[in-house]
């Protein structure tokens, strides 16, 4: 990572531009990653198609609703993903590169947030490209909404979901302040995030008790809640409550990041890196 001061818009652009150029050197890796995504979503489509051959409705979902949940949801994943950013953060800590940020007038957390935009642009573009092709192929099997108000609210939710996912990613990366065994923790948490966000299956397929509990945690707002609004399973009036919960978690997670970062720096500096 190239360290720059964050006191002008031009330098913010420089951070993003530098990372875009770096990501372009991984074009082949990104392409293979997308092909693996296509295989993953193809398996989901096949499994649910088989299930709906003997069922018209499954847990309140019709076939077209489930296909929409999978395909439109796939595009939403790209809008909120961070692509292994926690590995970069943990590596900065473990290899001592964080010290570069401590001796210059730059805030590491703010840098990571800006850096993430440059890091995601190429992957986001390729993801949306493949998702658009899939939407075209499955157009007659999914639900398309053109309600501008609903789409605006969904976009705001996804923007909040992006930052929720980013803040969780930063917290995972900061585990490296206290342990060198980050890989196992990172994988376990990512599996949990995938489950509790509704990526594996819609959360409202769970028993009602667990479903209501999960709605008060931030992970549902990365994926599940925006899709419920898109499908019309929650109303616009209900969406304001969920936006409030999302904002609450954004503030809380950022506060936790600042607290743990402050504590982690004490340990980092104490080691003498």
The percent range for helix content is: over 70%
Report the order of strands and helices: HHEEHHHHHHHHH
Describe the main β-sheet briefly.
2 strands, antiparallel
Give the overall silhouette. globular
Distance between the termini: 18 Å
Counting DSSP E segments of at least 2 residues, the number of strands comes to 2
Secondary-structure-based class equals: mainly alpha
Number of domains: 1
The portion of residues forming beta strands comes to under 5%
Give a written overview of the molecule.
There is one protein chain. With 273 residues, the protein is mainly α. The protein has eleven helices and two strands, in the order ααββααααααααα. Strands 1-2 form a two-stranded antiparallel ribbon. Helix 7 packs antiparallel against helix 10. It is globular and about 60 Å long.
Q: Secondary-structure map with pairings?
A:
Blueprint: H1 9-24, H2 27-52, E1 57-58, E2 61-62, H3 63-80, H4 85-94, H5 99-102, H6 108-137, H7 148-173, H8 182-196, H9 208-214, H10 224-231, H11 236-271
Antiparallel strand pairs: 1-2
Helix pairs in contact: 1-6, 2-3, 2-6, 3-6, 3-10, 4-7, 7-10, 7-11
Please name the defining characteristics of this protein.
two-stranded antiparallel ribbon, 11 helices, 2 strands, 273 residues, disordered N terminus, mainly alpha
Q: What is the structure about, briefly put?
A:
This protein is 72% helix and 1% strand. It has 273 residues and is mainly α. A hairpin with a 2-residue loop joins strand 1 and strand 2.
């Amino acid at each position: 990572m190239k360290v720059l001061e964050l006191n002008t818009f031009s330098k913010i652009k420089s951070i993003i531009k530098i990372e875009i150029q770096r990501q372009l050197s991984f074009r082949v890796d990104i392409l293979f990653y997308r092909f693996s995504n296509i295989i993953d979503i193809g398996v989901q489509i096949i499994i649910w198609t088989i299930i709906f051959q003997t069922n018209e409705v499954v847990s309140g979902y019709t076939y077209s609703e489930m296909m929409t949940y999978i395909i439109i949801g796939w595009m939403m994943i790209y809008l909120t993903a961070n692509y292994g950013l926690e590995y970069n953060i943990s590596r900065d800590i473990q290899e001592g590169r964080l010290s570069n940020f401590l001796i210059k007038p730059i805030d590491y957390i703010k840098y990571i947030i800006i850096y993430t935009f440059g890091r995601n642009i190429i992957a986001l573009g390729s993801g949306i490209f493949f998702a658009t092709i899939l939407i075209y192929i499955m157009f007659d099997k999914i639900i398309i909404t053109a309600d501008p108000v609903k789409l605006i609210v969904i976009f705001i939710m996804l923007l909040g979901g992006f930052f929720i996912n980013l803040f969780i990613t930063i917290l995972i990366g900061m585990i490296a302040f206290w342990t060198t065994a980050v890989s196992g923790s990172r994988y376990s948490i990512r599996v949990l995030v995938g489950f509790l966000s509704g990526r594996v299956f819609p959360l409202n397929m769970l028993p009602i008790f667990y479903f209501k509990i999960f709605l008060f945690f931030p992970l549902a707002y990365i994926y599940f809640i925006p899709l419920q609004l898109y499908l019309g399973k929650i109303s616009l009036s209900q969406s304001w409550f969920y936006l409030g919960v999302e904002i609450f978690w954004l503030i809380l997670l950022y506060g936790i990041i600042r607290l743990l970062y402050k504590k982690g720096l004490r340990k980092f500096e104490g080691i003498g890196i």
